[in-house]
């Protein structure tokens, strides 16, 4: 008799030892200001991934051809942000140290900070490609330096100029847009027209890709904390991932799915497909 | 005093005898694996159709100019798949025998099998145009040969090669895509670029059109069992139906609306408009 | 200590005396036939506007640079339509009399009638630009002359031919389309291809803009009384508003958000952004 | 083959001529101030009644033993309250004139007014039993005399003192409670302890029973415009109906189900069972 | 670092070999007529069980003191009822053969049939205690002998008279109530007043307990296929389980949670607590 | 013309200077482990309070007879728990210093800690009455000492034995129940049978009342982070508040409404009524 008791993302059936890619969840949403709930993303994605095929007709590849381990979720409390960030950082360090590639599922966007820090320790010339509706470049937010709304600013603090490339940005304060325009980050407002050119520039460097799923239009992805109409389509996202496949990606994350805000379940299905495609190009 | 107690799709007010087109429901979803509920489609569509106009500005025609009968739903149990399929088959045979055209509302996609079988008995050179996100070409699914995921495979069993034309397909196993590519069906992946050419090829033959509404992008049609992002738009669907209008369509179905998964009601509104347009070209 | 007890649309912090623009709600939905609930729009928009930035990257302007007053909602009963319309008319007259521009948030589309009447008293050569999925040109609806489905017909009653320009229309009776085609209104079916030309024609006249948000596709705006698939995108709407910015707009309204029908909250976010952009071009 | 196309409350299969009881809907909610939607009640009840048995183990009777006709819904517009009330009044007059008993499904509570007026024309010594969370005795509400919040006041206008008996009342203004206490109506606050005594007093008179379903606790009946915690249980309601069965009931109504506010469907199931029991004692 | 990747009911951490109790899911709902979805119960219960404590203040016991294994779900297709029933039967036989006690989570009530058959093979003098809103004693339902609405009739087919004790029953056809009253089953309508007496009678026999959770009032348990107002309270259920703890229970099941119909999540929380208590008395 | 732009709890219309009672929100839910969202409680309660009467038939008093100020919400970030607690503490100190009584609306239960600390500074012999489903007496939770699950333990840290009286408790670890039974707190499991006796004991002392609304049964109050079936009824709560009215209450809070988890809106209505009654006895 066949029993069903797996609790893994579809096709991520390898042991940790054998795996080349480590899929894991970082269910932290403690600084979410508007609508919390991204903490539930990784858990829901695993379950709903069973409505998905392992084969991608976009990339014409199958997850079953790759060595991927689902490590589960890091167990995080919510009251103490700094402890949570430290635990994520340590986990990613371990993954990188064993020459595996991490694919982290948020949680809110702040979880990206300790992950990039960990990857950056190994790859000093790291480039960050950032897909998002929001610039996330504020100096402070509600009185705090560490927040989902300041995260790329904090990444800039240690990477510096000409390392961060932002796409799809369509919301922020006037200051954020100005600060970026002063040359601190490269910003492609609204879409991703410059992506080919940027890929060409960075193709010999180690790249970290952070995808805040709210870069997608909320018509196809309403299940997120701060939906911003005017985003890219799912087909755009498939095109983007195909383009990224020629890069040397050393780590990636996919954040800000808040599944409870989309009762249709479509947002979770979208996130699952984006994850499948990212796993296939890592 | 005006009383309101109709329970028919809007504009389908003809008696069975006078009608040229028979609209009916086949509320079976017994093999749905992921999210059942398409059994409720026909019933919800009738009620919500009163938010619709009988006039189509797309086709510049009005339902009131046609002779259409709403026959209600076939009463089907759920535990016994084979009984359900047989009853659908018999009903469609009766419709076809009296020289009327059937427009069936599913239910899951498996209901298409007995309907095409019935139409095929009369039209031996039948062509099937299949709009869907899924290839539905598996040999087996969860151990069963008869399932919503195998239905076009079962249709092929009696139609054979060069009879089935598939559009919008964007999900399936590697085996399904391969099997189709061996020439068993014509498959237009993702979109419908080849539709004009195919229409030209089949325009002298009797055609059955089966529309699995999940061919639409879930941004506009989330209310379905297995939503697959990356689909065609509603405007695409209007264009497709206009193109189909020159064909000799002898039967059609529209399946896989599961209205409860879309609390906004938009999916039902979409299905109702697709039905109105199909009725206008039959 | 910072306390939070505002109940205003974001950035509308001016006093009535100093303001040049008056934002207010007209929460009436008493003739809604299919799905009521637009009465809740203004109240929900104010609260959710705190998830929005005051800065628009589309127009590169900031609400904080303008003098806008949020006057709250007109308190309206529901059983007596004529009293409600009279109160809206009187309020808009006061606004116009003090040389301020009104931006009214519906409510159903019928609230547009008394607002345009008030603006027309001052601007006899008023032009109306009407964005909507529905023609709203019926003579009667369910036995009544005054209804959300007849409102542009009633506006025509006092404005006459060549004053009303309709965009995005994709639903109506055959009679409405015919009557418009006889030259009573200009109608751009489905989209807004003629907008540039019309703007050129009317750019020296006072213009009232009425936006029924169901002109948007229900994929991005499901929260409305009568969703009609096949509409324009949010990006289209941003383009339209940018084009309108060169006109002499003397009043505007944004109607038919029914927030309860969209549990994801995206419709309210869309409405809030459309309002921000309209405030920035008034 | 068995087809299913009925659209009647379960067991209400008699023709109008043969029937002794006439079930009908009055889908008007035009004065609802807080949450509209009771207009959808009758339509939803008919569909969901197919989840119900015709047999009541409470009364040990079966609907199939009675002659009941489902007349559908009166078609009503929403903008003109007075027209709607007049149409309800005329319909009930016809029913009463042909010696049948009306069971009306609201709609909001205001629909009770024209129904009682019609019944009262025939039965001058009519007694009204009123089950409700709200006193509904205001003189005015939001500036209007005719409203769901004033309806029992308006009934008192023509019935006068000692005719109206109210049960379950737990919300109202201080004035309403005072006015009732002056002897204008009999009021049993919170529960129905005095019901046996009242039944004894009125058992020889013609009685009209009006049940505002919000008399039930919102734990079992959340689907209503103004839910008031602290109500009676469903079992209490079954007991009440059994007690009422010895009265000479000449008409009844059941109002204020707003099905969309209860996504679980339980409120509609509750309303359907209350209706079944009322039909069995009429 | 602590990782979280379990997918077990809380406290069911024993291996199969060591366990005395086997918890498992039978996610079949193929004959559900009104609202399917109980197939999702076991999966949701496992996840939400992490909001629960392992300690019961009702029984003053802790799950951690017991040897319980969570075997996952039996993998079942939906189109073929007979195959599904056979697989359940075989699994329960294995459990019973190894001298462990099964606690099965449905699925619809029909899954009880093969489970009782398996247990009965070992315990020929088996007694069944049945808690339910529905009698489930029909001869046929929608033309089928095997259905959720006939299941206790099918159990009677092999157990015969004086073996089945039913509590909480408040819905059924007139025939079902009559047939039971002829002595075929013991039936406690509405409540469980006779439970003490019955427990006394059967306390020396092997007992199977089947709990259709719709025996609970839908105020506390709306998430089920056919909610029936008028049920027992959660506190009643706790009392019942405490009473049952003195019996020799050799198997049990808990069925008919359909979690998607209760967006509040309370129904799943209720089911989880009932399961915890049942595990503690097995 | 009457405009509506208030954003206050109904009847709380006094200025801060004149008021005797200060109503305010503390929208913090940063340590919520299972389902966040109580941050939205105060905001939703204010809006929905307009469906409420100011008059209580339970207490026969009217809010308009009292001097109450609605101070709005304290603006709090989420990433830094300690800053949030400090701001609440300071606000309550100010209120108490000016001889007004605070009624705080949570937020999660942890907000009670800084409020009681502030009140305790003034009233050294303070007694705490605690109504809750959960004991909240843990030493640590997910590695943190300060959490919604430890809050009464932290209150005990400075109040010590014989100061905390707990009612309605029905969930916790075995350790929590044991620790309380050692005499550290008085605990009335499940209900409130000992309340009269306790009131008699503490009636000469200053009392702080903290109501975690999950003490109510989730049938009437599903909108909370951790619903626990088996709670007290709304009528019980009304009885409790009436009993408390003879005490010298110097501060109170009402916490853990998470309105988004109850789409019916009933939980917010319940919370609003509990608040009205508490305001009337302060």
Automatic annotation (TrEMBL), chains A, B, C, D, E, F:
Alphabetized Pfam families for the sequence: Arginase
| Example GO molecular function | metal ion binding
Against NCBIfam families, the record matches this protein to: agmatinase (TIGR01230)
**What's this protein's family per the entry?**
Belongs to the arginase family. Agmatinase subfamily.
Specify whether Hydrolase is a keyword of the entry: yes
Note on cofactor: Binds 2 manganese ions per subunit.
Extract the SUPFAM superfamilies matched here: Arginase/deacetylase (SSF52768)
Record's Gene3D superfamilies? Answer: Ureohydrolase domain (3.40.800.10)
Q: Which UniProt keywords apply?
A: Hydrolase, Manganese, Metal-binding
User: Which source organism does the UniProt entry give?
Assistant: Alkaliphilus metalliredigens (strain QYMF)
Give GO BP annotations, semicolon-separated.
putrescine biosynthetic process from arginine, via agmatine
Q: Which residues bind Mn(2+)?
A: 109, 132, 134, 136, 212, 214
- The reply to whether Manganese figures as a keyword in the UniProt entry is yes
Report what the protein is called.
Putative agmatinase
**What is the required cofactor set for this protein?**
Mn(2+)
